[in-house]
Amino acid sequence: MDTAVSIAFSLAVIAYSVATTLYFFRLAPQTSERVRRSSWPGRILLLAVILHGFHICAASILTQLCPVASLQFALSLAGWVAVMTFLLMARRAKVEALGAFVSPLALTFLTASQFLEGQGVRPSISRAMLAAHISSNLLGLGFVLLGSAAAAFYLLVDQLLRQKKLGSLGRFPSLGALDRTSSQLLLLSMPFLTLGAVTGGMFFTQIGAGSPAMILRAVFGYIAWAIVTVVLILRALSVGSIKRWAQGTVVAGFAVLAILALYFFRAMGGAGA
């Protein structure tokens, strides 16, 4: 089993790396139309996510830790959720270019998770409650990351159009497709972020013994949740512009990245939690 886990991890890293390279090639201005329309980046990314999923399952069996009840697999599972969401909506929403963001993101999460030590559920914490908290946060934060990536692409394309440089820098999704994708992902994230915030508040002092890193993660989590709430309300009331909504979504994405950075610093021997 240990050998199978190692092989799956290595192959997943290779597949994610190849997919990342191919997606960046599709954005290059000198790339031919045939290469832009190639389905190989998506196929290789699908292979990577299958290997990634097998690695999560096999590693959890090997370590006897449930993926949604252990912080060890939090980053890895978040990356897997992000890729699955992207693959399910990329063709329909015509935002395949986001693969240049999603592929390296998943690769980073997969490799970073290898530095995290396993942490089981404490006796005083309900397994069901902790599983609900971790899984809802993984889904919610994953959707926010993808939504912020679409919003960042929107701002980039909008700026390039204003400067009349879009044609010389390659092919990007339309502004309408990027805005719709960002909005849909924020709507998907809201119930999961809310559930994560509620369950997190119920045993806030029990996980990590109230360490500074744990408190910071909670603060950034609530910031992301608040920003997403405000952006969705402004969208519903048609207050502000699409550009302002996109900027707010990007800020929420940075809050999520701050949470992940805290996990990374913890893994590297930083502040405990």
Structure report:
75% of the residues lie in helices and 0% in strands. With 273 residues, the chain is mainly α. It has one domain (2-267). Helix 7 (175-202) crosses helix 8 and helix 8 (212-237) packs antiparallel against helix 9 (242-267). The longest helix is centred in the middle third of the chain and has 36 residues, at 127-162.
Taken as a percent bin, the fraction of beta residues is under 5%
| Overall pLDDT score | 80
Overall geometric form:
globular
Determine the structural class based on helices, strands and strand pairing: mainly alpha
**Strand segment count:** 0
Tally of alpha and pi helices: 9
Order of helices and strands: HHHHHHHHH
Distance between the termini: 30 Å
**Unreliable stretches:** none
Helix content: over 70%
- What's the alpha carbon Rg, rounded to whole Å? 19 Å
The largest pleated sheet is described as: none
What is the number of independent domains? 1
Element layout with pairings:
Layout: H1 2-27, H2 33-36, H3 40-63, H4 74-93, H5 99-112, H6 127-162, H7 175-202, H8 212-237, H9 242-267
Jot down its keywords.
mainly alpha, 9 helices, globular, 273 residues, single chain, 75% helix
Report a brief summary of the structure.
This protein is mainly α and 273 residues long. 75% of the residues lie in helices and 0% in strands.
